[in-house]
């Protein structure tokens, strides 16, 4: 079974591994060479141009790479690798031979999934290690893997979780529908829906920390390293203030004494009314907890789709 599976899928496996290897070499080389380039330029004017363009270029490059890892990669694995796994055998009629031998249907299926899933998981792990070096390369990006959902999904353990989940979703629809094109469409739709829900609900995975606005927006608060959830005003009784128009004018009357948040006209106006500006956020030290919670959700969903695939394989044609 292992040899047959390898013969059937070796082209995709070798192509995928080669692609990841090439991407890894380019990322590691560029991430290691970029600090030398920036140091040589002194982060100042470059000959004939402003060095800021280079930092912006690097950020755009990392953002694009993170997007490919987070969303495009799983879609390709699920639709191109998982969805045709069973459907292609049925459409070609070769399942009549494969499923009437001494090897059971489930053993046939999970041998294939295991052989394909292992390089997929390794690719996810290696990809996370390829993306991570960039966040210490460009100034201001060190906190982005937690704040930016695209970076967050492309680092830590989530690339592995997303890729394996995508593969199993594809296998489920392949076994259930047994037609390659419809299975691919259903796989893409479910993956897109799942990614969207996880993105929209990420802030709700844990109860946020609430601090006064002056603390969060101070230099020590380092907002770039956090996930901002909400910014609002409460009165002395703890009720949420929905109309703060009484202090809108103060926001633009900024004097020289308003060098800090505490001395700002807006804060003084809030104090006169007995109001307090509050911010809900997730601090940067929750990065790994968010990673593990999200990975746990994906693992649970992966298990459900795997059980569904086993049940779907029992159906007789």
From TrEMBL:
The chain crosses the membrane at residues 12-31, 68-87, 108-131, 151-173, 180-198, 290-313. Keywords: Membrane, Transmembrane, Transmembrane helix. It comes from the Bacteria. This is ABC transporter permease. The lineage of its organism: Bacteria, Bacillati, Actinomycetota, Actinomycetes, Micromonosporales.
């Amino acid at each position: 079974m292992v040899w047959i599976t390898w013969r059937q899928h070796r082209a995709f496996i070798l192509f995928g591994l080669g692609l990841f290897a090439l991407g890894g070499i380019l990322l590691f080389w560029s991430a290691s060479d970029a600090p030398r380039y920036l140091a040589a330029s002194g982060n100042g004017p470059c000959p004939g141009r402003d060095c800021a363009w280079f930092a912006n270029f690097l950020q755009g490059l990392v953002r694009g790479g993170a997007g490919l890892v987070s969303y495009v990669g799983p879609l390709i694995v699920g639709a191109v690798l998982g969805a045709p796994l069973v459907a292609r055998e049925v459409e070609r009629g070769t399942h009549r031979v494969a499923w009437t031998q001494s090897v059971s249907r489930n053993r046939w299926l999970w041998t294939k999934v295991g052989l394909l899933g292992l390089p997929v998981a390794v690719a996810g792990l290696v990809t996370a290690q390829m993306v991570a070096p960039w966040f210490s390369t460009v100034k201001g990006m060190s906190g982005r893997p937690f704040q930016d959902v695209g970076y967050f999904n492309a680092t830590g353990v989530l690339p592995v979780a997303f890729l394996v989940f995508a593969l199993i979703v594809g296998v489920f629809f392949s076994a259930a529908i047994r037609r390659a094109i419809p299975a691919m469409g259903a796989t893409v739709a479910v993956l897109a829906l799942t990614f969207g829900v996880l993105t929209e609900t990420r802030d709700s995975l844990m109860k946020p920390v609430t601090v006064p606005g002056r603390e969060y927006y101070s230099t020590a608060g380092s907002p770039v390293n956090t996930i901002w959830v909400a910014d609002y005003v409460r009165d002395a009784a703890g009720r949420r203030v929905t109309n703060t128009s009484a202090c809108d004018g103060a926001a633009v009357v900024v004097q020289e004494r308003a060098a800090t948040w505490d001395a700002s006209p807006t804060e003084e106006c809030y104090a006169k009314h007995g109001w307090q500006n509050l911010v809900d956020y997730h601090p940067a030290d929750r990065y790994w907890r968010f990673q593990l919670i999200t990975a746990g959700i994906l693992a649970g969903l992966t298990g459900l789709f795997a059980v569904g695939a086993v049940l779907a394989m029992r159906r007789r044609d």
